[in-house]
Amino acid sequence: MIAIVDYGMGNLHSVEKALQSFGEKTLIADTAAALKKCEKIVLPGVGAFDDAMAELKKKKIDLAIKEAVKNKKIFLGICLGMQLLFEESEEANSEKGLGLLLGKVNRFSEKSGQKVPQMGWNQLMIEQKNCPLLKGIASGAQVYFCHSFYPAPAENSVIAATTDYGIKFSSIVWKENVYGVQFHPEKSQEIGLKILKNFVELC
What we know:
It is built from 6 helices and 13 strands. It is an alpha/beta fold and 203 residues long.
């Protein structure tokens, strides 16, 4: 069973519907205890970094996520959920991230000539062909983005795919049992569904 973390800001039902389309059982989880019932965890996200972390801490879900990752449960962060994996964000005024990955989250500069936020389709340039999420995905595949901030990992080894939007940024990260995608796979049609299917099949 896959837990989809509910902290009041995620695109829960689109993610849930996509995962269930592969015959997978899901649980909308808004307590730490609920996470313990599941083999995998998805942290979706739409909203602000501070608000999201405050809600996770309020419900002690942050601690449950860290424990689950330590116990080798497979974890996927989506959009803001990916950004929360890192230590800190330029968006945040008070909260630190989960710190599961080293690095920080930066805001796109409008000086690049690109509109902020990035909204729409863009390419994945694969950096690690052996990343399990990318099985059957070709470099250059298009996925759907909606974000003003992007992660800057401190370790290049976790960068599985990049995307160019005025600068090259990390659009997929992977470290052992922890995965993050900056785009919305649930809105990315065939490619996004393939990535989620790969996640479902991880063991």
